[in-house]
Amino acid sequence: MSFPARYWLAAISLMSAACVRTPDHYPVPEQHFPLRAQTSATAEFIAMGDAAALQAIVRDVNKGEQGAWRWTGADPELRFTLASPTNRTLIVEFAIHDRTFRETGPVTISFYVNGKLAGQEHYTTHGDKSFEKLIPAEWLLAQRETRVRLVIDKPWTSPDGETLGVLLKRIGFVE
Q1: What is the number of other CB atoms lying within 10 angstroms of the CB of residue 47?
Q2: Which contiguous run of DSSP H or E holds residue 55?
Q3: Quick one: CA dihedral 49, 47, 72, 145, positive or negative?
Q4: What is the pLDDT of residues 1-59, one digit of tens each?
Q5: For the chain, first and last CA: distance in Å?
Q6: How far, in Å, CA of 98 to CA of 94, rounded?
Q7: What's the pTM?
């Protein structure tokens, strides 16, 4: 039993159609980099998961945690070095944990820049929060350390005595 010639032609046509010449090279795809906080000692804005976070922490922020957020205590303070003091907005992104909020109730947080009160907010719900404030240029120092401090009026204290404030996510200055 022989295979008819027309089937041979059809099979050869199909096989040759499946064979295509691959290019010798492919162009490099367009590069997109995610928006990330700076990771140098002179960071102006940091995310808690970045390496620069440890360098920025002065006190009362958990240095042992790793990830997108870190627990603060009642009086956290961080340091930044700004290239220019003009037209800078302080941004603090954080969360008030639902469990701590159930026990403390509404929380007032005071935000300080170099010892000056930038603002005070009263939070009556838990969840994600942010604070933004344009900071006067005379409060800031170019190429020198700028300190940001949060004072949490009612931190939560665990049965073993650990004090927890908020879950800090990102903090710093933007133009």
Answers
A1: 21
A2: helix 52-56
A3: positive
A4: 455 666 666 666 666 655 556 666 656 666 554 444 444 445 899 999 998 899 999 99
A5: 83
A6: 13
A7: 0.76
- Rounded to whole angstroms, what are the CA distances from 8 to 18, 19, 20, 173? 16, 17, 20, 73
Which residues, 6+ apart, have CB-to-CB distance to 59 below 8 Å? 75, 76, 77
> 50-67: per-residue pLDDT in tens?
988 999 999 999 988 888
Question: What's the CA angle centered on 99, arms 101 and 149, to 5 degrees?
Answer: 50
Letter for the amino acid at 84?
S
Tokens of 34: 């995610």
Q: Are 41 and 145 in contact (CB under 8 A)?
A: no
Q: Which two tokens stand for residue 173?
A: 């200055």
Alpha-carbon gap, residue 43 to 145, rounded angstroms? 10
Length of the chain: 175
| The two three-digit tokens of residue 3, written as one number | 């295979």
Tokens for 138? 């005379």
* Residue 122, phi then psi, degrees to nearest 5: -110, 120
Mention every residue, 6+ apart, whose C-beta is less than 8 A from residue 25. Answer: none
Helix/strand/coil for 19: coil
